[in-house]
Amino acid sequence: SELQRSMSYKVLEGNVGYLRIDSIPDQEVLSQLGGFLVTHVWRQLMGSSALVLDLRHCTGGHVSSIPYLVSYLHPGGTVLHVDTIYNRPSNTTTELWTLPQVLGERYSADKDMVVLTSGHTRGVAEDIVYILKQMGRAIVVGERTKGSALELQKLRIGHSDFFLTLPVSRSLGPLGGGSQTWEGSGVLPCVGTPAEQALEKALGILTLRRALPQIIQRLEEALKNYYTLVSRVPALLHLLANMDFSAIVSEEDLVAKLNADLQAVSEDPRLLVRAIMPRENSPKPEPGANEQLGTLPAVPEDEAARQALVKSEFQVSVLPGNVG
């Protein structure tokens, strides 16, 4: 029952799997309940096209569970050194590696994944967020995490009534390169947004990423059918087929990347991609109205209005030297 209170799941619109974890049990509990979790939770999410892991309310957990959870999101066939934990009281270090085998299936590395965070996300949950971000496995959306500690210990000061709470274990973070980790500073999201809006933002990102194949296909068709510099088309098509879109989280990102790469390969600054945003509250055209871009405005009946229209559209003057 405690596990049910700390974990929930559902499949959202667009076939997006959603898994919320508020407390991470230790490895022993996960091992005992592994079959149940795989059958009744994980298997229900395996058919989703993308996954949202919600850790916005996750405030506790056990270090021993980190390899277990990360392994389900890491491709099989290889093991990855995800962290090294130093414990001061015992003066020992423990290496954390992904598991060579898991019960059930791993979530496909070809599917997008988003992790939601808040200022309340702390401890072991922060380490999981940090690892998935450094692996390039997940887009982190929400707020900077708390920057808490993996393990806290409460110590009495002498024989007084005063106690000191201090961190006794820390992450050495091999995936982050050196001793700089998330502790103290927190994990920065890839896309910052208030925690209460993080899920909506994540679903928008996933909708855009789901549309990428169709967008690229239409770009390829336009280049093949219309681009005047025919000799450069094969190189552009090869570029689009091999372009890395893993960091794309907005339409602005997509437009900037496409323009930079397409123009670099084509050496043509006229080759331009832009996003057309729907105009809110724009008046609808009258039935039968000419909707082509660049059409002239309707000619008014009144002569003064006609002159004003001409002056607004044309500037006529004779320059020195009798140059029109």
UniProtKB/TrEMBL annotation:
Q: Which UniProt keywords apply?
A: Receptor
Can you supply a Gene Ontology BP term from the record?
proteolysis
Keyword Mitochondrion annotated: no
Ranges for domain Tail specific protease come to 1-194
Instruction: Provide a Gene Ontology MF annotation, just one.
Output: serine-type peptidase activity
Q: Name one Pfam family in it.
A: Peptidase_S41_N
Gene Ontology annotations for the cellular component aspect, listed alphabetically: cone matrix sheath
- Asked if the Swiss-Prot or TrEMBL record annotates the protein with the keyword Nucleotidyltransferase, the reply is no
| Span of the signal peptide | none
What residue intervals traverse the membrane?
none
Q: Enumerate the residue ranges of region (Disordered).
A: 278-298
State the InterPro entries in the record: ClpP/crotonase-like_dom_sf (IPR029045), Tail-specific_protease (IPR005151)
Query: Which PANTHER family does the UniProt entry name for this protein?
Result: INTERPHOTORECEPTOR RETINOID-BINDING PROTEIN (PTHR11261), RETINOL-BINDING PROTEIN 3 (PTHR11261:SF3)
Q: What's the protein called, per UniProt? A: Interphotoreceptor retinoid binding protein
Gene name as annotated:
IRBP
